[in-house]
Write a structure and sequence with these properties.
single chain; alpha/beta; 2-enoyl-CoA Hydratase, Chain A, domain 1; OB fold (Dihydrolipoamide Acetyltransferase, E2P); 16 helices; 14 strands; 51% helix
Length: 422
């Protein structure tokens, strides 16, 4: 009897491997980046621990980072739970990196009104490879070989997959089905599960999905937060706001606005820089450009250092991120607008502040008796504003707090001696 039981188990084993109590649904709606990659890999592991019958990945992406795409593909290929990638709903697409992910699935499906393809490296690098460029051809050949090998592994149209890379071939859902790119067309998740029930996979497993509950694993707040920070344009703006905010705080001490805005922006930018592939040369050029602009404030070069700083900023900005995909790349419009706007604001604020401080000290007889306002607590020294100008001042007599009105009683060079106004 024991031998008979083992024989029965051997015969029905492939079907039992795909059996489970639920279907796990994941969603990739947006660019392929490290945050979405981590989310999908975590979802695949959760499905394995739960013994799920199937993982359904709803896909709608214009593409993204090659490294994140590679991680997702490897996770799908290594998953012990069958993975069905469904491009939907209508209007969705699996472009560029999405094409690779679709081909890696155990089951590839699309809804009517969707598309797949355009995986040519011109959509990855942002430049049209020249036929006589060895590096460009190396990139194309590598991508073509990768997608062809995955297509052959899954029994799909490897010739079309290679054309999607070399010629940016695209296909609609019905065309993809006719060409052998996908396994079926389904307009919704329930229809997909209904049509998958009883499907025999290439490794012999039989999918049993009818009547199973669907448990959706959503992106956590942390996933969504880091996914937003995976946008180089946002990270770049935060980085520039942080640097200029701290510079503003340095030139206008005691206000605190620059420290709050600059510090917060810089911390968020550093989080984003940890997610995205960056170039240390780009960061160095940006910091050098900012340094030149600061030095120009103290050095009479008639704007020469500022011009050099802007050039260094622009070069560093365009080389900051080591990203091949324009889908998730840094826009030149963002760079031009950010550098131009922040530079003008910085020059205006700093020049006004330094112009006020560079005024020649007034004779003692003209300052004594003038009224002003303390911009911070004088304990005993701090900043005061007298006749619209910032002055370093020392309190005499009663303590002086921020916002108190003061009266100048003496002048010691460029420093004032003040008392609280009665």
């Amino acid at each position: 009897m024991r031998g008979l039981a083992l024989a029965v188990l051997f015969l029905v084993g492939p079907g039992l491997l795909a059996a489970g109590a639920e279907v796990v649904k994941l969603t990739l709606d947006g660019t392929v980046n490290p945050a979405t990659s981590a989310y999908i890999l975590r979802g695949l592991r959760a499905a394995e621990r739960a013994g799920a019958a199937l993982v359904v990945l709803e896909l709608d992406t214009p593409g993204g980072l090659d490294s994140a795409m590679k991680e997702i593909m490897e996770g799908i290929l290594a998953s012990k739970v069958p993975v069905a990638v469904w491009v939907g709903p209508a209007g969705a697409r699996a472009a560029s990196a999405g094409t690779f992910i679709l081909f890696a699935a155990d089951v590839a499906a699309m809804a009517r009104g969707t598309s797949v393809g355009a995986a040519h490296p011109v959509a990855i690098t942002g430049e049209a490879p020249q036929e006589d460029d060895p590096m460009a051809q190396k990139i194309v050949n590598d991508a073509a070989a990768r997608i062809r090998s995955v297509a052959e592994l899954r029994g799909r149209n490897a010739d079309w997959a290679e054309r999607a890379v070399r010629q940016s071939a695209t296909a609609t859902a019905p065309e993809a089905l006719d060409l052998g790119i996908i396994d079926l067309v389904a307009d919704s998740i329930p229809e997909l599960l209904l049509r998958l029930d009883g499907l025999i996979l290439r490794d012999g497993r039989v999918l049993r999905t009818q009547g199973l509950p669907v448990r959706e694993v959503r992106m956590s707040f942390k996933d969504r937060f880091f996914s937003y920070l995976a946008d180089p344009n946002l990270v770049y703006i935060l980085l520039m706001l942080g640097l200029y905010g701290l510079i503003y705080e340095f030139f206008t001490p005691g206000i605190g606005l620059g420290l709050i805005v600059g510090g917060t922006s810089l911390l968020l930018a550093l989080l984003g820089l940890q997610i995205l592939p960056i170039s240390l040369v780009g960061i160095g050029l940006i910091l050098f450009g900012v340094l030149l602009m600061v030095l120009d404030v103290f050095t009479p070069t008639n704007g020469l250092l500022t011009a050099g700083g802007v050039v260094s900023l622009l070069i560093g900005s365009f080389s900051l991120f080591d990203i091949e995909s324009p889908v998730i790349g840094l826009s030149w419009v963002t760079v031009a607008a950010t550098v131009g706007t922040l530079t003008l604001i910085f020059l205006f604020i700093v020049s006004k502040g330094l112009l006020a401080q560079r005024h020649h000290p007034r004779p003692l007889t003209t300052m004594v008796g003038l009224a002003g306002v303390a911009k911070e607590d004088l304990a005993p020294e701090g900043w005061v504003v007298v006749k619209g100008e910032y002055w370093q001042a020392r309190a005499e007599g009663e303590p002086i707090h921020k916002g108190d009105r003061v009266t100048v009683v003496a002048q010691e060079g460029r420093h004032l001696v003040v008392r609280r106004h009665p």
